[in-house]
């Protein structure tokens, strides 16, 4: 009996030797019945629990769009709040299926971390926030300042680059958690709080006295924020990327959450292809023909998502018209290859 | 009769090896070893396979790459163009700094509280009890948050800094600023004098102990040594004309520049670790003292030893034998607990190396392995030192 046990144990060990590599994420997700999505713990506008204690935000809605495309149910998502430090490990270890967490697309991350970025959900740039009573009007006056930063971010590197290239000095005070960074800044531990300017706008609202703080005009970096997936699963990467493109393409074609059902009867071949009335683009990415219809029906197009969470009418209040985040047809950078 | 013995012998050797206890014990140990090696190999192989499947590179070459980020508090030269290996060194030094100072202070505080709890003075004993029960029963992380965020809030802003000695020592919510002593070149003689006195003190101590054992005459070693330590370097200082220039902290636009800045993260972490660990050390000390039976005290008294001798020659040597092993664990705990620094932003090895450097380089396996090795090495070194000390004070029979 003991001998048998040992034999079985050894056999199991040898048999399992190469079995843990990640293979078919779509099949895994479909089998468990939900999408596991990594988001920020609390960045208003991008990912934060709303008044009903449900996750809401631009990054959250991207995951909901994926869930809508896969399951026809935007609620078939479970969210994992992650710190900047944890995010890539969580993705590569398989703890999450997609990382949609205000993550800057850089070459080293794209090539060296074993992850692939699917697109840019928000074109951002790093800015600085200071207390008004410091009397600072520009980032060029910040030499000698103490700066609160979140650990493991591009922010940390950009600040070092910026101050070194302008010949200024600063004292970095680094925390693991964005909440602690904000708290330390609010308590006066630092003169300056720096992160992506969209997050600055959002976090300013959570300070004790938002009106006593201001965001400096300088933007010191390019921060294209987008969702990413593990490298090596091309089908899953294609799904992620084309869910993203579908959000843009539908906006460009004028299909929104409000009119999507009317649009089913449209004569425009482009609209008909996106909504799956004509042709079959879903099967090639393992989904149904009306995959994009489901996204728009449940979550909306890019503009619906943007205006719902970060647009001018929201507390975050970042106007879209004419900004880099507008569609290419209106002078922005948002551009999707055609669905055909 | 003889024949049956022989038969018995034969049957025994003929029985299957399975019933040979020696063979069985070896066989199972070898099987276990094979299993363990196979398991280890499986884990290793899995890691490598998965990293390759994700197109990740492995290896320690990244340590030579530029880190690209700054660290707010370092004990060595460091800037954004330094390498990841420098980050590693900065992290180790910061961890060592808080651990070593923490161990010294926690020991002092722990011994005081431990003795105080045994005090015959009711108030002192109760206060020590309250201290111990409060601080060892609240999680360390919460205490760190308390020391950091609660105390930081009570500190004034830079513009309203508390000034202790006019123009030299300032306290504000960015930390404590003290003048930085800058000794000139001839100060090296003073340092040499201090080293010489310490070496001399070692031999003086040996001489005084030997004389005491041979003749029973005592030599007041401690006061003599302290006297030497003060007087001799002072004479050298005056003779050589060594000087210490002080670099004072000066208020600039945002912060004080110059001087030595002791950041609040360091102070909060040190406070938290010392106060928490001292509560445990105090109980260890109390246990050690109570472990020496009353009979020893009475015996010492009947020999006519005076109070201080009774403590130094009879009670403490016996108590230390009980105290040292658990005290070692507390030292190890303090060192390992210093990794909670990450929660309040003190740049220890977990914060800067396992945090930022891991994230920027993406070398999770390598970085975590190195960090684990650092703590393992520190802990083993502490254990070795304490075991040597323990062996020296162990009961020697003459």
Question: Can you describe what's shown?
Answer:
The complex is a heterodimer of chains A (340) and B (398). In chain A, 51% of the residues are buried. In chain A, the strands form 5 sheets. In chain A, strands 10-9-11-8-12 form a 5-stranded mixed β-sheet, with helices on both faces. Chain A folds into 2 domains: 25-123 and 225-330, D-Maltodextrin-Binding Protein, domain 2 (3-Layer(aba) Sandwich); 126-221, D-Maltodextrin-Binding Protein, domain 2, CATH 3.40.190.10. In chain A, a hairpin with a 5-residue loop joins strand 2 (48-49) and strand 3. Chain A is built from 13 helices and 14 strands. By secondary structure, chain A is α/β, with parallel strands linked by helices. In chain B, a hairpin with a 2-residue loop joins strand 2 and strand 3. In chain B, helix 5 crosses helix 8 and helix 11 packs antiparallel against helix 12. In chain B, 68% of the residues lie in helices and 6% in strands. With 398 residues, chain B is α+β, with helices and mostly antiparallel strands. The radius of gyration of chain B is 29 Å and the shape is globular. In chain B, the strands form 3 sheets. Chain B has a 4-stranded antiparallel β-sheet with strand order 1-2-3-8. In chain B, strands 4-5 form a two-stranded antiparallel sheet. The chains are: A alpha/beta (340), B alpha+beta (398). At the A-B interface, helix 1, helix 4, helix 5, helix 6 and strand 10 of A face helix 2, helix 5 and helix 11 of B.
């Amino acid at each position: 009996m003991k001998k048998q046990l040992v034999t079985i144990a050894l056999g199991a060990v040898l048999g399992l030797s190469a079995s843990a590599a990640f293979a078919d994420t779509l099949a895994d997700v479909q089998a468990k019945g939900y999408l596991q999505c990594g988001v920020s713990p609390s960045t208003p506008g991008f990912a934060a629990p709303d008044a009903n204690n449900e996750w809401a935000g631009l990054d959250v809605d991207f995951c909901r769009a994926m869930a809508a495309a896969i399951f026809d149910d935007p609620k078939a998502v479970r969210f994992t709040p992650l710190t900047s430090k944890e995010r890539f490990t969580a993705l590569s270890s398989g703890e999450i299926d997609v990382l949609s967490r205000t993550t800057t697309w850089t070459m080293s991350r794209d090539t060296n971390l074993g992850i692939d970025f699917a697109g840019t959900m928000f074109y951002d740039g790093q800015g600085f926030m200071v207390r008004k009573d410091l009397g600072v009007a520009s980032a060029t006056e910040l030499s000698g300042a103490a700066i609160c930063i979140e650990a493991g971010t591009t922010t940390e590197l950009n600040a070092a680059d910026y101050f070194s290239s302008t010949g200024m000095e600063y004292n970095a005070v680094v925390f693991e958690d964005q909440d602690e960074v904000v708290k330390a800044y609010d308590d006066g531990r630092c003169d300056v709080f720096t992160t992506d300017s969209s997050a600055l706008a959002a976090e300013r609202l959570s300070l004790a006295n938002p009106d006593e703080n201001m965001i400096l005009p300088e933007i010191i970096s390019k921060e294209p924020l987008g969702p990413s997936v593990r490298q090596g699963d091309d089908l899953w990467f294609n799904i992620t990327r084309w869910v993203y493109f579908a959000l843009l393409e539908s906006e460009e074609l004028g299909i929104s959450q409000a009119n999507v059902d009317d649009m089913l009867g449209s004569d425009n071949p482009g609209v008909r292809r996106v909504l799956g009335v004509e042709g079959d683009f879903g099967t090639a990415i393992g989904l149904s023909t009306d995959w994009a219809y489901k996204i728009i029906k449940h979550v909306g197009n890019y503009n619906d998502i943007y205006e719902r969470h970060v647009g001018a009418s929201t507390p975050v209040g970042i106007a879209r018209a004419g900004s880099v985040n507008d569609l290419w047809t209106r002078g922005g950078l948002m551009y999707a290859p055609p669905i055909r | 009769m003889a024949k049956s013995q022989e038969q018995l012998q034969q049957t025994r050797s003929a029985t299957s090896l399975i019933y040979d206890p020696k063979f069985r014990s070896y066989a199972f140990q070898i099987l276990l070893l094979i299993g363990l090696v196979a398991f280890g190999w499986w884990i290793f192989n899995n890691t490598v396979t998965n990293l390759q499947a994700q197109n990740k590179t492995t290896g320690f070459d990244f340590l030579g790459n530029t880190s690209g980020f700054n660290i707010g508090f370092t004990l060595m030269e460091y800037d954004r163009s330094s390498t990841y290996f420098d980050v590693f060194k900065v992290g180790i030094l910061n961890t060592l700094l808080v651990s070593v100072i923490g161990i010294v202070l926690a020991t002092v505080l722990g011994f005081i509280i431990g003795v105080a709890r045994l005090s015959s003075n009711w108030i002192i004993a109760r206060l020590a009890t309250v201290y111990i029960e409060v601080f060892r029963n609240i999680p360390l992380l919460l205490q760190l948050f308390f020391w950091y965020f609660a105390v930081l809030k009570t500190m004034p802003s830079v513009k309203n800094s508390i000034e202790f000695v006019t123009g030299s020592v300032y306290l504000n919510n960015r930390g404590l600023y003290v003048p930085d002593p800058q000794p000139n070149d001839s100060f090296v003689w003073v340092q040499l004098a201090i080293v010489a006195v310490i070496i001399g003190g070692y031999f003086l101590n040996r001489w005084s102990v030997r004389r005491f054992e041979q003749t029973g005459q005592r030599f007041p070693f401690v006061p003599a040594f302290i006297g030497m330590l003060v007087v001799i370097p002072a004479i050298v200082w005056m003779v050589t004309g060594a000087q210490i220039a002080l670099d004072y902290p000066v208020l600039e636009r945002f912060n004080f520049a110059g001087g030595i800045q002791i950041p609040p993260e360091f102070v909060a972490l040190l406070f938290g670790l010392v106060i928490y660990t001292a509560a445990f050390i105090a109980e260890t000390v109390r246990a050690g003292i109570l472990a020496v039976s009353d009979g020893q005290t009475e015996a010492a008294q009947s020999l006519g030893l005076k109070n201080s001798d009774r403590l130094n020659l009879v009670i403490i040597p016996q108590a230390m034998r009980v105290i040292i092993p658990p005290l070692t664990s507390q030292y190890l705990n303090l060192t390992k607990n210093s990794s909670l620094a990450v929660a309040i932003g003190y740049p220890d090895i977990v914060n800067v190396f396992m945090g930022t450097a891991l994230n920027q380089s993406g070398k999770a396996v390598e970085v975590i392995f190195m960090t684990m090795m650092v703590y393992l090495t520190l802990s083993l070194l502490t254990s070795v030192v304490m075991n040597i000390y323990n062996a020296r004070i162990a009961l020697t029979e003459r």
